[in-house]
Design a protein that fits this description.
Blueprint (H helix, E strand, L loop, with lengths): L6 E5 L4 H16 L4 E5 L12 H6 L2 E4 L2 E4 L1 H9 L5 H7 L5 H25 L7
């Protein structure tokens, strides 16, 4: 991880939801020259991140200025780095909003995405790299 990106997002391109969202963020970031990199967990050595494939497919991981953020916190850090999405980060950090969004992300959204990924994997529907 020696490029100038001060923020890196680790995502699963085999997941259509994750891929669409991260590709949209990547295009936005690239068009504005933002120092954000996007690592597809299927195409890198996960040892560089110190995370297992299973953990990486369960929750978003973002490395920002050397600190690892996981789950909803990772999403907030990523949104903070992109001017268009900063309002979401501010909203997500509000005292009454944060615990609800954090729980919904981990227990509903991420869990649903992970289970769909596991079903696609069991059926052999993941693309071959």
């Amino acid at each position: 991880m020696s490029d100038p990106a001060e923020t890196r997002a680790l995502y699963n391109s085999d997941c259509p939801v994750c891929d669409a969202e991260m590709c949209s963020y990547a295009a936005y970031s690239e068009a504005r020259g933002l120092p954000i990199a996007f690592d597809d967990l299927n195409r890198i050595e996960l040892d560089r991140w110190g995370v297992s494939e299973d953990a990486a497919t369960r929750l978003l991981h973002v490395l920002h200025r050397g600190e690892l953020h996981i789950g909803f916190d990772a999403m907030l850090v990523l949104w903070d780095q992109m001017p268009r999405y900063r309002w979401l980060a501010r909203l997500g950090r509000l005292p009454g909003v944060y615990p609800i969004c954090d729980w919904i992300y981990a227990q509903v959204v991420a869990r649903w995405i992970y289970l769909r990924h596991q079903r696609r994997k069991a059926r052999g529907l993941l693309r071959k790299t």
